[in-house]
Design brief:
By secondary structure, this protein is an alpha/beta fold. The chain contains eight helices and five strands; from the N terminus they run E-H-E-H-E-H-H-E-H-H-E-H-H. Helices cover 38% and strands 11% of the residues. The protein is globular, with a radius of gyration of 17 Å.
Length: 230
Amino acid sequence: MSKQKKAIVLLSGGLDSATCVAIAKSKGYDVYALSFRYGQRHSVELEAAQKIADKMKVKRHVIADIDLRTFGGSALTDDIDVPKGRDADEMAEDIPITYVPARNTIFLSYALAWAEVLECNDIFIGVNALDYSGYPDCRPEYIAAFEHMANLATKAGVEGSKLTIHTPLIDLSKAEIIKNGTQLGVDYGQTISCYDPDPNGAAACGECDSCLLRKKGFAEAGTPDPTRYQ
């Protein structure tokens, strides 16, 4: 009898990562969800991640504590204003201040460590190279390089147990992601994408890059947006 496949899914509490959990489950994996309390200004996303993990019945959900506020340098971890009301051209101009330095490298490194402990060969991350805000650690070439490094840097990789980093959303528009997730039963009302929600997390700002991309995605998918906006 074959062992049940395991996958670690990076779960932020947002739309993309919730869709990744659903996709991994649809492929027959037992999902081990990994979230981070990394010094982000708004902890509401972790509450969303917990709700998603519970509803989607993941095998285990771990919230790891690290503190990227030690370095700051991002509107998500420092006292820097979140950009609002930007159009697509403005978003594409440069790497925005909401980029958290080396965040995906740090997160994937934690996932890699847990994967070795679980004897798991598969990690899912919801990076996207289309509807994204210019983050360098969301590009296909970055993921390929990290996967190559992971197989050089681990006991499992050296012994021939190859690790694969899955990026099922990387070439999809936000609308396509929403359509796929809806078909898989994702409750997007439980997710939060906002970079600057109200203090109690009850409503998204509706004007940051992430909210604007989310609104556009639901509109193009022809799906009602369950998000509460301020």
